[in-house]
């Protein structure tokens, strides 16, 4: 397997020095011979080396450097004299592109090229300049480089000043994007493009299809009613909280927190002016039912808010136990089920309100938010778009795209079999070499002290784990979701890549 990473270890820097010597001393007579047969670049401490492996053997490399002056500046003067100003906003120089002789095949050059595209684009460079050997002019041109000044160097080692801009690399990067393998917990990659619909949301046909979708959602959730809105999970939670504000304007409630999204729910509740107390049990820790009951025994609480599937740390919180407490103390239980709905079978019968979305475990286009209700909400002081009784009264008060309704109806046909699919996918993750934690089959959490380096290697090779959020970065965590359509094939390749990546850390 050919794969790329950023060089980081002493062993990799030794291999770079050896390949540097082989290429730029023995093959291209640019430097003097030495008995160690190693050449350390004069800008070594400023270089970022992107290297290519064949399994565990380093076979190719290229160096990025953005400290001025560039080596090409010394040959032709500042490159700004030749290039447009917008191209020069954030320049880097590519140097030392080299591949071992017995690995000079299309796959290695393709891997190097794709690593160049991904790295320079992700770091935010506006362009890369290079002194490309005339021997490989065709290869550089195929990669998107273009010559911008006259050739330099000696007859034995002649080079072309060339540049690769973000614009000139756009076609290549779009091809790479289409090849990316993603493991995000949403949005879901669509296997088929959405087809715009001209069916009016005021038509009888639309009303029939909407009723069918709502019926399917309620059957899957074992809920009595559902209100769909165009929006995200955050909007769904705001709609739920706005309704609670109308029902309990002065009464107190509890918010249970053990992760990022529980904390976000608490913050949203505070913004609505709800009178709440927070029970925070710590990141990923289970709720203490006895502690919660002790709060309820004091009296005065009218509702509990919690996140059922806490995506941030793959924790499934105890709906059944909380439901028993709510029934015992005659209070309302409300849940953010955005990550759990569609990933496991459960009943919302005991929930006063619950929220979900289309673009998570259901596995379809993001864009619809759902508020499930045990009873029809009667009155609300919330703004019109978030006013749940208004949706009951008007049925379809605002534009609801037909293709959203159609997409959700289509994926509902995949249940209950999809539950088993997601469970098998999670078993594949747990049975791999990765040390993950997960308590429900939507997302697995993986912690490693060198996670930033691992994620960079994955991204250079077109594998995108969920790891960019600040709450994940600060904990050295990445996550792998099961909900993307090509999981089985993509995870097999990811597992192979990670086997080699972990050997080189």
Helix content: 25-40%
Taking all Cα atoms into account, the compactness measure Rg is: 28 Å
Mean pLDDT across all residues, rounded?
Answer: 94
From the structure provided, what is the oligomeric state, counting identical versus distinct chains? single chain
Strand percentage, roughly?
Answer: 15-25%
Biggest sheet architecture? 8 strands, mixed
Distance between the termini: 17 Å
Q: What structural category characterises the helix and strand content?
A: alpha/beta
Any low-confidence stretches, pLDDT <50, length ≥5?
Answer: none
Please give the count of helices. 16
> Using DSSP, what is the number of strands?
22
Shape: elongated
Question: What does this molecule look like?
Answer:
By secondary structure, this protein is an alpha/beta fold. The chain has 16 helices and 22 strands. Strands 1, 2, 3, 4, 5, 6, 7 and 8 form an 8-stranded mixed sheet that branches. Strands 10-18-17-16-13-11-12 form a 7-stranded mixed sheet, sandwiched between helices. Strands 19-20-22 form a 3-stranded antiparallel sheet. The protein is elongated and about 85 Å long. The mean pLDDT is 94.
Please summarize what this structure is.
The chain is α/β, with parallel strands linked by helices. The protein has helices spanning about 10-25, 70-75, 105-125, 135-145, 170-180, 205-220, 235-245, 260-270, 290-295, 320-330, 390-395, 400-410, 415-430, 450-460, 470-475, 485-505; strands spanning about 1-5, 50-55, 55-65, 90-100, 125-135, 145, 150-155, 160-165, 180, 225-230, 250-255, 275-280, 300-305, 310, 315, 330-335, 355, 370-375, 435, 445, 465, 475-480.
């Amino acid at each position: 397997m050919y794969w790329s990473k950023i060089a980081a270890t002493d062993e990799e820097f030794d291999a770079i020095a050896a390949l540097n010597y082989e290429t730029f001393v023995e093959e291209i007579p640019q430097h003097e011979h030495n008995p160690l047969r190693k050449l350390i670049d004069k800008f070594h401490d400023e270089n970022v080396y992107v290297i290519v492996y064949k399994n565990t053997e380093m076979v190719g490399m290229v160096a990025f450097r953005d400290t001025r002056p560039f080596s090409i500046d010394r040959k032709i003067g500042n490159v700004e004299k030749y290039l447009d100003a917008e191209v020069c906003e954030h320049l880097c120089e590519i140097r030392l592109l080299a591949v071992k002789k017995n690995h000079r095949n299309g796959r290695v050059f393709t891997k190097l090229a794709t690593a160049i595209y991904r790295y320079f684009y992700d770091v935010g460079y506006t362009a890369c300049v290079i002194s490309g050997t005339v021997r490989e002019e065709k290869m550089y041109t195929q990669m998107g480089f273009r010559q911008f000044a006259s050739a330099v160097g000696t007859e034995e080692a002649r080079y072309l000043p060339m540049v690769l801009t973000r614009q000139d690399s756009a076609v290549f990067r779009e091809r790479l994007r289409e090849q990316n393998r993603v493991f995000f917990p949403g949005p879901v990659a669509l296997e088929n493009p959405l087809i715009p619909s001209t069916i009016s949301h005021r038509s009888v046909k639309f009303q029939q299809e909407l009723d069918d979708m709502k019926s399917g959602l309620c059957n899957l959730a074992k809920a009595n009613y559902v209100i769909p809105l165009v929006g995200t999970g955050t909007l769904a939670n705001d709609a739920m909280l706005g309704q609670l504000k109308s029902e309990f304007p002065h009464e107190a409630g509890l918010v249970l927190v053990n992760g990022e999204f529980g904390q976000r729910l608490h913050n949203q509740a505070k913004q609505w002016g709800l009178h709440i107390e927070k029970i925070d049990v710590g990141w990923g820790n289970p709720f203490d039912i006895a502690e919660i009951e002790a709060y309820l025994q004091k009296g005065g609480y009218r509702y509990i808010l919690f996140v059922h599937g806490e995506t941030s740390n793959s924790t499934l919180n105890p709906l059944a136990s909380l439901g028993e407490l709510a029934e015992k103390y005659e209070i309302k239980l409300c849940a953010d089920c955005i990550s759990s709905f569609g990933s496991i079978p459960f009943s919302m019968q005991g929930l006063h309100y619950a929220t979900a979305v289309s673009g998570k475990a259901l596995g379809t286009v993001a864009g619809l938010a759902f508020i499930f209700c045990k009873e029809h909400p009667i009155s609300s002081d919330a703004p019109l778009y978030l006013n749940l009784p208004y949706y009951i009264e008007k049925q379809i008060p605002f534009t609801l795209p037909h293709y959203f309704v159609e997409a959700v109806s289509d994926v509902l046909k995949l249940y209950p079999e999809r539950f088993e699919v997601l469970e098998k996918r999670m078993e594949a993750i747990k049975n791999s070499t990765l040390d993950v934690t997960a308590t429900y089959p939507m997302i697995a959490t993986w912690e490693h002290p060198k996670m930033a380096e691992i994620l960079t290697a994955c991204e250079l090779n077109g594998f995108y784990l969920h790891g960019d959020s600040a709450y994940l970065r600060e904990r050295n965590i990445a996550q792998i979701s099961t909900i993307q359509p090509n999981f089985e094939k993509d995870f097999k390749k990811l597992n192979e890549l990670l086997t080699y990546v972990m050997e080189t850390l």
